[in-house]
Amino acid sequence: MTLKTTKTIYWIGAILTSLWFGTSGICELTKNAIVWDITLQLGYPPYFIYVLGIAKLAGIVVLLIPDKFLRLKEWVFAGIFFDIIFAFSSKLVVIGPAATIDAIIAFTIVAVTYTMYRRIYTVSYLKLQDLSAQ
Protein backbone atom coordinates (compact mmCIF):
# COMPACT_ATOMS: atom_id res chain seq x y z
CA MET A 1 0.00 0.00 0.00
CA THR A 2 1.43 3.39 -0.94
CA LEU A 3 1.81 6.23 1.54
CA LYS A 4 -0.72 8.26 -0.46
CA THR A 5 -3.33 5.46 -0.18
CA THR A 6 -2.60 5.08 3.52
CA LYS A 7 -3.05 8.82 4.08
CA THR A 8 -6.29 8.82 2.10
CA ILE A 9 -7.72 5.98 4.17
CA TYR A 10 -6.53 7.71 7.36
CA TRP A 11 -8.18 11.03 6.47
CA ILE A 12 -11.45 9.39 5.44
CA GLY A 13 -11.46 7.51 8.77
CA ALA A 14 -10.46 10.64 10.74
CA ILE A 15 -13.31 12.61 9.15
CA LEU A 16 -15.86 9.83 9.76
CA THR A 17 -14.64 9.45 13.35
CA SER A 18 -14.82 13.21 13.86
CA LEU A 19 -18.33 13.41 12.44
CA TRP A 20 -19.47 10.49 14.59
CA PHE A 21 -17.92 11.65 17.85
CA GLY A 22 -18.47 15.34 17.13
CA THR A 23 -22.18 14.76 16.64
CA SER A 24 -22.25 12.66 19.79
CA GLY A 25 -20.36 15.34 21.75
CA ILE A 26 -22.72 18.09 20.60
CA CYS A 27 -25.74 15.92 21.46
CA GLU A 28 -24.33 15.32 24.93
CA LEU A 29 -23.72 19.02 25.55
CA THR A 30 -27.15 20.07 24.24
CA LYS A 31 -29.02 17.36 26.14
CA ASN A 32 -30.33 15.76 22.96
CA ALA A 33 -33.08 13.45 24.19
CA ILE A 34 -31.93 10.36 22.31
CA VAL A 35 -28.30 10.47 23.43
CA TRP A 36 -29.05 11.87 26.89
CA ASP A 37 -31.80 9.36 27.73
CA ILE A 38 -29.82 6.33 26.55
CA THR A 39 -26.75 7.43 28.51
CA LEU A 40 -28.83 7.92 31.67
CA GLN A 41 -30.52 4.55 31.05
CA LEU A 42 -27.05 2.98 30.96
CA GLY A 43 -26.47 4.31 34.47
CA TYR A 44 -24.10 7.21 33.83
CA PRO A 45 -24.61 10.38 35.90
CA PRO A 46 -25.50 13.69 34.17
CA TYR A 47 -22.19 15.40 35.03
CA PHE A 48 -20.34 12.58 33.25
CA ILE A 49 -22.32 13.16 30.08
CA TYR A 50 -21.18 16.81 29.92
CA VAL A 51 -17.53 15.89 30.55
CA LEU A 52 -17.74 13.23 27.86
CA GLY A 53 -19.16 15.75 25.38
CA ILE A 54 -16.38 18.25 26.04
CA ALA A 55 -13.70 15.54 25.80
CA LYS A 56 -15.08 14.31 22.47
CA LEU A 57 -15.12 17.78 20.93
CA ALA A 58 -11.61 18.58 22.18
CA GLY A 59 -10.40 15.22 20.87
CA ILE A 60 -11.72 15.71 17.37
CA VAL A 61 -10.06 19.13 17.16
CA VAL A 62 -6.72 17.46 17.92
CA LEU A 63 -7.48 14.62 15.52
CA LEU A 64 -8.14 16.97 12.61
CA ILE A 65 -4.96 19.05 12.92
CA PRO A 66 -2.56 17.57 10.38
CA ASP A 67 0.98 16.58 11.41
CA LYS A 68 0.76 18.17 14.87
CA PHE A 69 0.21 16.90 18.41
CA LEU A 70 1.12 13.32 17.46
CA ARG A 71 1.49 12.13 21.04
CA LEU A 72 -1.77 13.80 22.01
CA LYS A 73 -3.45 12.07 19.05
CA GLU A 74 -2.41 8.75 20.59
CA TRP A 75 -4.30 9.79 23.73
CA VAL A 76 -7.31 10.83 21.66
CA PHE A 77 -7.39 7.43 19.97
CA ALA A 78 -7.11 5.75 23.39
CA GLY A 79 -9.99 7.86 24.72
CA ILE A 80 -12.14 7.02 21.73
CA PHE A 81 -11.43 3.32 22.14
CA PHE A 82 -12.33 3.51 25.85
CA ASP A 83 -15.55 5.33 24.98
CA ILE A 84 -16.47 2.66 22.44
CA ILE A 85 -15.61 -0.21 24.79
CA PHE A 86 -17.66 1.27 27.64
CA ALA A 87 -20.58 2.03 25.30
CA PHE A 88 -20.47 -1.50 23.93
CA SER A 89 -20.27 -3.11 27.38
CA SER A 90 -22.97 -0.91 28.90
CA LYS A 91 -25.38 -1.41 26.02
CA LEU A 92 -24.74 -5.16 25.95
CA VAL A 93 -25.54 -5.54 29.65
CA VAL A 94 -28.37 -3.00 30.02
CA ILE A 95 -30.14 -2.93 26.66
CA GLY A 96 -29.03 -6.08 24.84
CA PRO A 97 -26.85 -7.25 21.94
CA ALA A 98 -28.83 -5.46 19.20
CA ALA A 99 -27.96 -2.09 20.75
CA THR A 100 -24.22 -2.69 20.29
CA ILE A 101 -24.16 -2.49 16.50
CA ASP A 102 -23.18 1.19 16.49
CA ALA A 103 -20.26 0.49 18.83
CA ILE A 104 -19.05 -2.35 16.62
CA ILE A 105 -19.17 -0.10 13.53
CA ALA A 106 -17.39 2.72 15.39
CA PHE A 107 -14.73 0.32 16.66
CA THR A 108 -14.06 -0.93 13.14
CA ILE A 109 -13.76 2.60 11.69
CA VAL A 110 -11.49 3.80 14.49
CA ALA A 111 -9.33 0.65 14.41
CA VAL A 112 -8.68 1.06 10.67
CA THR A 113 -8.03 4.80 11.12
CA TYR A 114 -5.59 4.20 13.97
CA THR A 115 -3.79 1.50 11.98
CA MET A 116 -3.33 3.93 9.09
CA TYR A 117 -2.19 6.65 11.53
CA ARG A 118 0.53 4.34 12.88
CA ARG A 119 1.65 3.41 9.37
CA ILE A 120 1.91 7.05 8.30
CA TYR A 121 3.81 8.28 11.32
CA THR A 122 6.04 5.23 11.65
CA VAL A 123 7.07 5.67 8.00
CA SER A 124 7.52 9.45 8.44
CA TYR A 125 9.53 8.96 11.63
CA LEU A 126 11.82 6.40 10.00
CA LYS A 127 12.42 8.69 7.02
CA LEU A 128 13.38 11.55 9.37
CA GLN A 129 15.79 9.26 11.21
CA ASP A 130 17.41 8.22 7.91
CA LEU A 131 17.85 11.85 6.92
CA SER A 132 19.38 12.85 10.24
CA ALA A 133 21.81 9.90 10.11
CA GLN A 134 23.29 11.09 6.81
Automatic annotation (TrEMBL):
InterPro entries: DoxX (IPR032808). Keywords: Membrane, Transmembrane, Transmembrane helix. It is found in: Membrane. One of its GO terms (cellular component) is membrane. This is DoxX family protein. The chain crosses the membrane at residues 9-27, 47-65, 72-89, 95-117. It is a multi-pass membrane protein. The keyword Signal does not apply.
